[in-house]
């Protein structure tokens, strides 16, 4: 079951295995990066990128002065900072940029960076609007530079190993996938802390708005931008896109042909307009890579159970793969060759004579063959303590820059994961299913 991207190490228990990533740094040529968007995910991505040998940070851009001050506190008083991302793109000593901004800036910044000759790591979702994305694909092809989208699920050791389990036929034919993300707490619903000095003097709010509708300064819109449709993509673009990235990686799918979503703003009525609960059904057509299957997905930011969690459950005809974040379990079953009779069955309504005749026929037809089903051994797979799929994902990015190795989560993959996610929002707004062409990557 081991192969590209993963290997296995069997523990003392026969049915418990530890996953081992096979993603390694392929060269250590120096790569200098620039950070565009020095907020939460910007620091996560940058700190992880700097763990890769040969990667150096050359500068950072943000529209809040306090983040630029912190950048100098963290990376040195002479560290280069700016409020204009174009100044980073103009620097010849920067090879690649991390785009960690609000979603409504992703396409423009990615295209500008590629045209400036920079490699691009763009946080998910790659786009904010479902009609976007092709400009990024075209710019990447024209530039010859690397573009990778930042959902680390595409490089997760658990996702890559689950892919091999599915391909092995262990759980039979894929029929259905259930994928979810549940959250309960305030910060998990994007209500992030707002600094006390947030004013028009410290925040370049007009530049933040970009092509979005012009409104008066509002610190909530800047620091909690995910709550607003003008700048973010809500639960669909932030979280469902992670789920679909995992699903598409495992199945080699281009995506669904139909998406139907329902959603509401149920609990976090704090001025936001992004839904806090979404449920969606997606229909995946048969392709050369897989048979047809269905996906049910949900995000609930007001989960009253309090457990939270993230999961993808892949149902086959002969078993199931139950995936957490960097771990999963495999359960299988085997059906008997005989149908059995009795219990909740029409046999109970037969006359005495017919019951006797049926038993004779059944025994002559099936003999001692088993009926019903029996479960196989359950296998569990766990990543080692301290494993970081974000690091693996950034290694894939930098390997692509250094050696030209494959980038699975490229611009086309990014669009094929983002657009069906955003179709959930569109379906809710229009109150009808959304038809999508996953090959041509266009609305129908």
CATH topology of the largest domain: Dihydrodipicolinate Reductase, domain 2
Structural class: alpha/beta
Rg, Å, rounded: 25 Å
What is the terminal separation in angstroms? 39 Å
Number of strands: 19
Write out the CATH superfamily name of the largest domain.
Dihydrodipicolinate Reductase, domain 2
Instruction: Supply the CATH architecture of the largest domain.
Output: 2-Layer Sandwich
Q: Provide the number of structural domains.
A: 2
Q: Provide the CATH top-level class of the largest domain.
A: Alpha Beta
Low-confidence stretches: 7-13
Q: Outline, from the CA principal axes? A: elongated
The residue-averaged pLDDT reads: 95
- Fraction in beta strands: 15-25%
The level of helicity is 25-40%
Helix count?
A: 12
Biggest β-sheet description: 13 strands, mixed
């Amino acid at each position: 079951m081991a192969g590209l991207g993963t290997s296995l190490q069997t523990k003392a228990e026969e049915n418990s295995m530890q996953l081992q990533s096979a993603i390694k740094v392929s060269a250590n040529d120096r790569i200098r990066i620039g950070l565009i968007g020095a907020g939460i995910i910007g620091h996560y991505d940058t700190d992880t990128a700097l763990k890769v040998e040969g990667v150096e940070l050359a500068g950072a851009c943000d529209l809040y002065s306090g983040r630029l001050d912190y950048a100098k506190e963290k990376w040195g008083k002479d560290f280069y900072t700016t409020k204009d991302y174009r100044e980073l793109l103009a620097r010849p000593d920067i090879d690649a940029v991390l785009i960690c901004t609000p979603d409504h800036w992703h396409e423009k910044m990615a295209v500008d960076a590629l045209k400036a000759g920079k490699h691009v790591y763009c946080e998910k979702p790659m786009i904010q609007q479902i009609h976007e994305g092709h400009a990024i694909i075209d710019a990447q092809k024209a530039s010859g530079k690397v573009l990778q989208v930042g959902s680390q699920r595409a490089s997760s050791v658990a996702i890559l190993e689950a892919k091999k389990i599915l391909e092995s036929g262990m759980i039979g034919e894929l029929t259905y996938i259930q994928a979810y993300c549940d959250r309960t707490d305030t910060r998990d619903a994007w209500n992030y802390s707002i600094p006390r000095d947030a004013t028009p003097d410290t925040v370049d709010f007009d530049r933040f708005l970009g092509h979005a509708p012009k409104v008066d300064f509002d610190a909530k819109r800047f620091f909690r931008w995910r709550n607003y449709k003008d700048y973010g993509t809500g639960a669909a673009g932030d979280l469902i896109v992670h789920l679909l990235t995992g699903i598409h990686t495992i199945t080699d799918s281009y995506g669904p042909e139909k998406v139907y979503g329902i959603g509401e703003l149920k609990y976090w009525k704090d001025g936001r307009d992004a839904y806090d609960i979404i449920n969606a059904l997606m229909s995946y057509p048969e392709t050369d890579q897989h048979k047809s299957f269905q996906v049910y997905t949900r995000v609930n930011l007001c989960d009253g159970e309090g457990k939270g969690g993230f999961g993808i459950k892949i149902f086959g005809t002969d078993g199931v793969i139950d995936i957490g974040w960097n771990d999963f379990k495999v359960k299988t079953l085997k059906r008997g060759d005989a149908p059995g009779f009795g219990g909740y069955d029409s046999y109970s309504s037969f006359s005495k004579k017919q019951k006797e005749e049926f038993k004779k026929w059944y025994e002559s037809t099936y003999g001692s063959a088993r009926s019903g089903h029996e479960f196989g051994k359950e296998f569990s797979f766990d990543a080692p303590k301290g494993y970081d799929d974000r690091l693996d994902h950034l290694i894939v990015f930098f390997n692509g820059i250094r050696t030209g190795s494959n980038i699975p989560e490229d611009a086309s993959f990014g669009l094929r994961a983002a657009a069906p996610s955003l179709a959930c929002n569109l379906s809710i707004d229009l109150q009808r299913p959304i038809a999508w062409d996953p090959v041509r990557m266009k609305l129908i």
